User: Fold this.
Amino acid sequence: MLMCKGNYGESFKLLGSSKDLPIIMTSDVYCLTTMMKCIALGAVEFLLKPLSEDKLRNIWQHVLHKAFSSTPKPEVDSAASLMQLQLESEDNNGVLKDTEGLSWIQDIVWEQEQPDGSVKSQLNQGSSLQGFWESGDQMNCPMETDCSDKHVQSNFVETTSHDLVCEDTLQEGQPQLSGKVMDKEDENFAVGLNAESNVYQHLQNKYGVKSSPSAAEQSIQGSDVNPSASSKAKKTKVDWSPELHRKFIQAVEQLGIDRAIPSKILELMKVEGLTRHNVASHLQKYRMQKKHAVHREENPRFSMLTNHLKPNMAYPSYYPYCGISMSTVYRTWTQNNGQPANVNMWGPPDYRHWPQPGTQPWNSYAGMQADAWGCPVMLPSRAPYFSYPQQISSSHNVYTANKSCYGTPHSSFDLQPDEELIDKIVTEARRKPWSPLPLGLKPPSAESVLKELSKQGVSTVPPRINGSKPP
DNA sequence: CAACTAATAT
DNA sequence: CATATTAGTT
Assistant:
């Protein structure tokens, strides 16, 4: 997740440009119009500060839900079409009145029209680090492919109505949002994916001679693919790409943690050019990390802020974040006086892509696995498509309850939540990723808006354009 | 000799 | 910094 302080304009751009991400907006000031904009543009939540435990929990739920959902939010589309519609009607001389109910649409359109190519998320960044091992470890996850294709899984945008200064966070974003994933080509090619530079250079240098450059090394980096390398395999290190690591993990798991020894692993990996030493080295690191991870697990105190700050190769990540890292969120939280949330709304979680019971490979690893991985072992017994009121803060339902709520949050942090609490909440969310999201507010449906429009004399509805960009 | 660990080198 | 290499041990 990404938290961003910025003006609404920028935030909206972000919203509009990152439809794959669940975005949560927060504000310390309630403003229906703004809220509606956010929603229309795809925010999954709009939270008023300060943050409360429940809101925090809610946020994490969104993260997890998003992690398991790969379909774009339909709401966004509908919002987009509304914008479209609005555009057209504006041409006809702004038929719409600037009423609370609809004015926001215009704003949305306006925002949308801004060329915003510049708005990119930088989330990817962290992912390369944090998400690295995690995604690699996902090999057992049925959704792996899906996920790896989505580096960014969630977004958290904070807006402060005070200063409308957009801080760099979003802007200097690094490129590619959903960025290039590794082409999953030939497996052998995996090793050399990242490079023609550092793929597999042999130690030849040192030992002077390496009798046959052996197809080995070359194939690692795809001799066929990379001629330059094939020539004089001069690669030095194995690039443990996620793909390669995946194979590694796969082998390890296949063998069993105790049987996983370099030679066997090497065997199972079936990666030409890879040496036992390479594997051993990697294994060593793997074990170390795992060990540490276990320790952290035992000492929850450290688990949170540290556990996710580093790539964790040993500890299978719980979810296919593949990019977004929890640490990102944490940093966000910790560096901003955790200002949290209040109103939340909407968003039927999409469980369609959730692993089905019995279909996940990791099911075969029994409870321990399932638990360790944090993957749901069963689906919610109740229809997931229904929204449930948030357990604690039913009063937060601003939209439906008409301002009955953004008053005083019940339990809110004056300061930032402490690690333990965060830890607890995240753990909870991890353990029960299938729990329904607290819902309440829903964006106006296309129907309702159309209805409203027709009331005002707008009857023609432009055909929906799949997408959101106005011509 | 394979495997492991820790330390150190690149 | 991630890997590789080396050294010492089992």
Summary: The first strand of chain A starts at residue 23 and ends at 27. Chain A has a mean pLDDT of 51. The beta strands of chain A are 23-27, 43-48, 155-158, 388-389, 438-439.
